[in-house]
RNA sequence: GGCGCAUUGGUGUAGUUGGUUAACACGCUGCCCUCUCAAGGCAGAGAUCACGGGUUCGAGUCCCGUAUGCGCUACCA
């Protein structure tokens, strides 16, 4: 049997990171076992679905490197089939027409309404599932429908017995039929509802494993009833623990804003592999006792064993290590602090991104930096031509202390442009504090210009010699130089910076009057 | 209200069939390195394994109960 899994988001907003993780787990599983990963857009709620959202979902998956097989499916295209299937169930007596007029509900009060109704029914001793139309004779039902009376279609759920299944993550699940109401399949306006559409589409797509959020765990029993009504084989289910906000509330787009949107991470300079790596470790971890032979996939090379503390996994490595039975049950908290720019998202995600930026192969990093510089109008074609070697060296120097790709155009701006800002605190601490520097720095520029060839080593020698002669500490000149050349108080080793910026630019910036002009 | 699921340091997780001082990563503190800041190295703080019972010579690991959180309970998805 070929494994077939799907990611089935509804296009009602940007891609939620919880949804992105569902997609990732589906994808990892498919790639691991050589199955198919399909994408289906659940756009049956036409009022809330947008093309823009569909686009952002596809872009998001592409950004994460999750390629899907076969054609993209839009659920709305199948609505006629879903309607027909529901009607067939009526004919077969497995579902019935409910002529009860539709209740009008405000979206907000829905939850409270459910509770209130349940309490009222319990108090009055009414079976919450009782429906006067459940046992309406077929010919009477047909007649009323033919007369044009509106009706919804409900599944006729058995009164006794129970439904059970084994969830790959949560284990044995069972639910008495008495707990399941006669769910509506088709709205009175003919609109097919979620549970019906999902099941029918999954059957048609030949889905073998349904991997989705835990919020669907109890719904699964209803869906199994539908599989049985359609005499279809029931797939395996694996429900994923939810991702929660720091206060353990549901992580929602509405309440928590852009931090839950996948596109935010792209736009704020995350490396896709880093975010994918982080996401994979939310609710899943590799088996630390596995041996190399067991994690080899196909004819790929044997990989080394896991080392304790090993958490940086390439795409290939994730595929090798992934397994559904290592997904765990308790929800994960996505730890971020609203209103704190330093901790705008999970610290570990930020750390992991920095780790990728400083250790990934430069052949992979360079194009990302290029895109970033280009978007900030800092890119020059020479960086890929005459100056490609310089560019690579520059990036390898400054990447060491960057956290996101954005840093290349912000903190790294002075390496690519003369138009950079001086940080006031840096100027005050490293330059204005010592008046002599106004004369010393231009003199230092003179000395550096004599260094031949102009390298980190020769620049260091020249600077140290000059500091001895001028009877000042080398550190004074070094820190002042850093601020003169980059506008900042922190950065790479100063002599490396001299070499990267080169003789002319270094000397020119050391002679600049800007710090005195701008901050006196 | 009913049903279901979960509960290991601040966060993410490890903890094989119950067996000595609960492990790792991020974050935090200090020291080293040093021209700054990172990185790196070293050291450290932080968990009565939600709580209460029980089984056992012995429980984070098994059983029961309680609490808390979350989910479902819609002619939403």
Outline the structure in words.
It is a single chain. The chain has 520 residues and is mostly helical. Helix content is 44%, strand content 9%. It is built from 21 helices and twelve strands. The protein has helices at residues 17-33, 51-64, 79-91, 110-124, 138-146, 194-204, 219-229, 253-256, 262-267, 272-280, 315-321, 347-359, 362-375, 388-398, 406-409, 424-432, 437-449, 456-469, 474-486, 494-510, 514-519, and strands spanning 4-7, 36-41, 73-74, 95-98, 152-155, 162-167, 171-176, 184-186, 209-213, 236-240, 243-244, 332-333. The strands form five sheets. The chain has a three-stranded parallel sheet with strand order 1-2-3. A three-stranded antiparallel sheet has the order 4-5-8. α2 (51-64) links the parallel β2 and β3 (73-74). α18 (456-469) crosses α20 (494-510) and α19 packs across α20 (494-510). The longest helix has 17 residues, at 17-33. The model is unreliable at 292-296 and 298-302 (pLDDT under 50). The chain binds one RNA strand of 77 nucleotides through α4, β5, β7, β8 and α6.
Average per-residue pLDDT, rounded, comes to 92
Largest sheet: 3 strands, parallel
Helix content: 40-55%
Parts with pLDDT < 50 across at least 5 consecutive residues: 292-296, 298-302
- SS-based class: mainly alpha
- The tally of beta strands, per DSSP, is 12
- End-to-end Cα distance, whole Å, is 76 Å
Strand composition percent: 5-15%
């Amino acid at each position: 049997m070929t494994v077939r899994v799907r990611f089935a988001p509804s296009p009602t907003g940007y891609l939620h990171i919880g949804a992105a993780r569902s997609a990732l787990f589906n994808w990892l599983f498919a790639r691991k076992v050589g199955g198919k990963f399909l994408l289906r857009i659940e756009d049956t709620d036409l009022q809330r679905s947008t093309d823009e959202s569909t686009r952002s979902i596809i872009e998001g998956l592409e950004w994460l490197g999750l390629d899907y097989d076969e054609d993209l499916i839009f659920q709305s295209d199948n609505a006629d089939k879903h309607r027909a299937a529901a009607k067939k169930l009526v004919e077969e007596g497995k579902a019935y027409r409910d002529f009860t007029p539709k209740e009008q509900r405000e979206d907000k009060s829905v939850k409270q309404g459910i509770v209130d109704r349940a309490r009222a029914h319990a108090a009055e001793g009414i079976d919450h599932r009782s429906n006067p139309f459940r046992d309406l004779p077929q010919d009477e039902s047909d007649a009323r429908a033919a007369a044009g009376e509106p009706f919804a279609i409900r599944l006729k759920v058995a009164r006794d017995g129970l439904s059970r299944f084994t969830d790959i993550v949560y284990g044995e699940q069972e639910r008495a039929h008495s707990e399941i109401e006669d769910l509506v399949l088709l709205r009175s306006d003919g609109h097919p509802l979620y549970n019906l559409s999902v099941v029918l589409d999954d059957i048609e797509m030949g889905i073998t494993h349904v991997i989705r959020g835990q919020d669907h765990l109890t719904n699964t029993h209803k869906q199994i009833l539908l599989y049985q009504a359609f005499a279809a084989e029931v797939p395996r289910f694996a429900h994923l623990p939810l991702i929660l906000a720091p206060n353990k509330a549901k992580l929602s787009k509405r309440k928590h804003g852009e931090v839950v949107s996948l596109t935010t991470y792209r736009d704020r300079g995350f490396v896709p592999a880093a975010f994918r790596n982080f996401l994979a470790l939310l609710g899943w971890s590799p088996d630390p006792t596995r041996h190399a032979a067991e994690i080899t996939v196909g004819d790929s090379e044997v990989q080394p064993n896991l080392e304790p503390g090993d958490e940086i996994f390439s795409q290939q490595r994730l595929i090798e290590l992934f397994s559904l039975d290592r997904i765990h049950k308790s929800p994960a908290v996505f730890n971020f602090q609203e209103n704190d720019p330093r901790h705008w998202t999970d610290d570990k995600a930020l750390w992991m991104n920095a780790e990728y930026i400083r250790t990934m192969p430069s052949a992979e990093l360079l194009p990302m930096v290029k895109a970033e510089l280009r978007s900030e109008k800092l890119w020059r074609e020479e960086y890929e031509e005459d100056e490609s070697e310089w560019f690579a060296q520059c990036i390898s120097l400054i990447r060491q202390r960057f956290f996101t790709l954005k840093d290349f155009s912000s903190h790294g701006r002075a390496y690519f442009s003369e138009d950079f800002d001086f940080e006031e605190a840096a100027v005050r601490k490293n330059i204005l504090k010592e008046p002599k520097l106004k004369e010393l720095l231009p003199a230092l520029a003179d000395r550096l210009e004599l260094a031949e060839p102009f390298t980190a080593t020769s620049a260091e020698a020249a600077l140290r010699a000059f500091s001895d002669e001028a009877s000042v500490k080398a550190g004074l000149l070094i820190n002042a130089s850093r601020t003169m050349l980059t506008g900042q108080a922190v950065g790479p080793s100063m002599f490396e910076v001299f070499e990267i910026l080169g003789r002319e630019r270094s000397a020119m910036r050391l002679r600049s009057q800007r710090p005195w002009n701008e901050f006196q």
